[in-house]
Write a structure and sequence with these properties.
alpha/beta, two-stranded antiparallel ribbon, 5-stranded parallel sheet, 15% strand, 235 residues, single chain, globular, Rossmann fold
């Protein structure tokens, strides 16, 4: 017999929503089966899914604070953001490659938002858990963002395509550092991807969304955490 969390709320973007890119139909869709959150539910965990495609940390913070004020019976909240926060408005970059451009959420604002979410959850008696980011693939993502745009202009602004990876990694590292400084559990999904020599085969055509194989990696990491930390054998 197991004792378990009564309710887990998940705050995140398309990664934990289970969004993949269907190359045949050329559009985004949700995994039809074996989604990460569905798999956690199969362990007997009560999951409330607050994830949303395109969600950023500042938007999520407002929604979370509003939800907390209304009241919740959640005991734990999983937080996963950064992929949309670190992104740029690539059409504007292509139009003005010599100008200065800011990401959707600057790193300082991102750090402050995650910190505020963690502290707000704790004030309401909810345990926050952070998740870092699956890696991005620079070449794939560059090809994706430059479709229909001036790719040379975007590359001029970037300097080199690998800046895409490094910039994205800064947000993942920020999450990891916050987990340490704020004394939160961290679910590391990034390392299992990077341990794959061909990790790009675990990402969709767009180079940022995990595909079915990638979601299996995330699934294993989250299920492992749930079994070790959330399902406690009754004495």
């Amino acid at each position: 017999m197991f004792n378990m969390m009564k309710r887990i709320e998940v705050w995140g973007d398309s990664v934990l929503k289970g969004i993949i890119y269907d190359e045949t139909r050329q559009k985004y869709k949700r995994l039809e089966q074996n989604g990460v959150l569905e798999s956690m539910s199969e362990l007997g965990l009560d999951i409330k899914n607050n994830t949303k495609f395109g969600m950023t940390a500042p938007k999520a913070k407002k929604l979370m604070l509003s939800a907390l004020e209304k009241g919740t019976d959640a005991e734990l909240a999983l937080i996963e953001f950064g992929g949309n926060d670190c992104d740029f408005k690539w059409a504007e970059v292509a139009e003005a490659p010599d100008a200065e451009h800011q990401p959707n959420t600057t790193l300082d604002v991102f750090k402050a938002c995650i910190t505020d979410m963690v502290q707000s959850l704790r004030k309401h008696g909810i345990t926050p858990v952070l998740m870092n980011l699956p890696p991005i693939h620079s070449q794939k993502y560059f090809n994706w963002i430059s479709r229909g745009l001036n790719a040379d202009a975007i590359l001029k602004w970037l300097g080199d395509k690998e800046l895409i990876y490094r910039h994205h990694e800064c947000y993942s590292l920020t999450v990891m550092n916050l987990a340490k400084s704020l004394n939160c559990d961290l679910i590391d999904v990034r390392q299992p991807f990077l341990m794959k020599r061909d990790y790009d085969h675990y990402l969709c055509e767009d180079g940022i969304h995990p595909n079915e194989r990638g979601h299996a990696i995330i699934n294993e990491a989250l299920s492992g955490y749930a079994r070790s930390k959330l399902l406690v054998q009754a004495q």
